[in-house]
Amino acid sequence: MGSWDERCHDILGVIVDQLSAIEDIGHFGAVCQAWRSVSVEKWHLSIVDPWLMLAEKKDSDNRGFYSLSTKKVYYLNLPEARGRKCWSSYGWLITLGLDLEIHLLNPFSRSRVSIRLPSLRTLPNQYSIETSPEFIRRAFIKKVILSSRPSKRITSEDHNEKCVVMGIFSEFRRLSFMRLGDEVWTHVYTPREEGCITDVVYLNGQFYGFTSLGKLVIVDISSPDPKTIEIAEPPDGRSNSAEFYLVESVGELFMIAREVYVEYNGVECNERQYVRDTDLFEAYKFNFDDSKWTKVKSLDNRAIFVGVNASFAIFPSSYSECEPNCIYFTDDGLYGLMKETPRKDMGVFWIETEEFDDHYIGPEILSRICGPLWICPSP
User: pTM of the prediction?
Assistant: First the structure.
């Protein structure tokens, strides 16, 4: 006969097996540590593929999440994200509202701890005081990523040295970072000759950035004067006209180049409007031995997810509805989803055949605040 702890674990397992909704599993795990350990096991069995967080409904605190596995939309009550632009990393949301305050939020946790990060106003290269909060909310932050998953019980007063928040900010697309518990953002110096930062990734204990000039840089935050250090030139024959994403996968580094056609589409609300249309993706793999990129026509059975989320890759299993050797993408432009267009710039791209398809067809796509984004549900 097993110990009482083992029998208690088995009983809790029977209980949680009766739960089908992800939010119910999350609520179960919020009771105590023993219940949480059982819910995490069930969670990982229930969540096979990433979810697409849809655009917010007008005048509603409910937010839709489309599961690639079940082809269903699940709704969570998420007032903390209402009216706020969102980015995602490690299953957490980073949000920015008209108050220009930045928060870190796990949308799947019952406790819904909202961690207030240093204000946007502590960052350099601010817009002029005449710039509207609506425009700042939409345009000032390009991307924010985490180095690791924050502690579930963390509050704004706690200090978590293991988690670093790194973001691409301002119209000049510069890096700044903070460790949870810091009161201000720390600026990272990037020489002008390296270009603007277009994406950033955390790999093997180190941040890497990719620039608008196609250069790969290390983000050195260990010194008193943080800076980027160029380590590789652009891939041979690769133009700098594309949008670039860095992707970490089991210790390897990939770069995805996205060729986008942009067309002027008139003026709405006194602002110029543009329609985006992705024409092609190309994939490159980095060799750390010779600091060279190699173009690849296969992702080695990976599925890669890009957009305003921290880019990531998975290996689809037999239980997955994701396709291997595909790039799943959302529209991360400033204007692409703000009005009806013949084609929404999101879908699936088969890297081997260079064909496109849809991954979600339905409502809750258009938004003046925050379009759909990828997120991996995390308890």
Answer: 0.86
Q: Give me the chain's average pLDDT, please.
A: 85
Measured distance CA(12)–CA(35) in Å, rounded: 7
CATH for 296: 2.120.10
Q: Which residue in the block uniquely carries the two structure tokens 């108050």?
A: 99
CA-based radius of gyration for the chain: 21
Report how far residue 210's alpha carbon sits from residue 216's, in angstroms, rounded to the nearest whole number: 5
Which residues form the domain of 5? Answer: 1-46
Give the DSSP H or E segment for 103.
strand 102-105
Q: CA of 154: how far to CAs of 102, 140, 144, 149, in Å?
A: 16, 27, 19, 11
Cα torsion 113, 370, 90, 288 to 10°: value is: -150
Q: Rounded mean pLDDT of 121-131?
A: 88
Same domain, 21 and 112: no
Query: How many structural domains comprise the chain?
Result: 2
Q: If you search the block for the tokens 């860095």, which residue do you land on?
A: 246
